[in-house]
Specification:
The chain has 201 residues and is of the alpha/beta class. The chain is 30% helix and 24% strand. The model has no long low-confidence stretch (mean pLDDT 96). It comes from Chironomus riparius.
Length: 201
């Protein structure tokens, strides 16, 4: 697992995942829409493909030749209706099948462990796309790790717990979550699992 494609690598958690992968000596390929969003410290260290996750040809360029894939697609602070995360995931899975890559980790939200009516109204649209994404991931036939974090905190690394099919707590450090997206690819116990993760408090 030496070469990774990381989608969403310029977001808060994505940056942590990229930093950790580089620290572990991985070759990282990233898809970015806009060169200006690429952190300065990544410029000489990662392989960058400029494009859009909604464009299959762009996604294919990123996925070709890698050993594993990390999907941390987000909408920044936009909570309006979207299909970008689910459609982007569909394109990534299609590219993985095309190039014979089987292992990936994908970020959704611990709201998916709750009944939809219990999710705060402001997150209904995002949650709906996360649900579409989860179904696409589960139906992929690939070795997925569906990671459903709670509130992602800008806090230092701390001991955390992982459970299947439920959330163990209310927050997770962005550093620990970023690391987990990389490490879980090399742990086959997590393959085909829906994973809850949270800081032990």
């Amino acid at each position: 697992m030496n070469k990774l494609a990381i989608f969403g690598g310029t977001g808060m958690t994505g940056k942590c995942a990229v930093e950790y992968a580089l620290k572990k000596g991985k070759h990282v390929k990233m898809l970015i829409r806009n060169e200006s969003t690429l952190p300065e410290e990544f410029k000489s260290k990662v392989e960058v493909i400029q494009g859009d996750v909604l464009n299959q040809a762009d996604v294919d360029k990123v996925v070709e030749g890698v050993d594993g894939v990390v999907i941390i697609l987000g909408t920044r602070n936009d909570t309006s209706a979207t299909t970008v995360m689910s459609q982007g995931t569909k394109n990534i899975i299609q590219a993985m099948k095309k190039f014979g890559i089987t292992k990936f980790s994908a970020c959704m939200s611990s709201f998916l462990f709750m009944p939809p009516e219990a999710v705060p109204k402001v997150f209904h649209e995002i949650n709906a796309d996360h649900l579409r994404m989860l179904n696409i991931v589960k139906e992929s036939g690939l070795e997925y790790r569906a990671v459903l974090p709670p509130h992602i905190a800008d806090e230092p690394s701390a001991p955390f717990q992982v459970l299947y099919d439920k959330t163990p707590g209310r927050t997770i450090s962005k550093y620990d979550l970023g690391k987990f997206f990389i490490d879980c690819l090399e742990n086959d116990e997590h393959s085909g699992k829906v994973i809850g993760i949270a800081t032990i408090k």
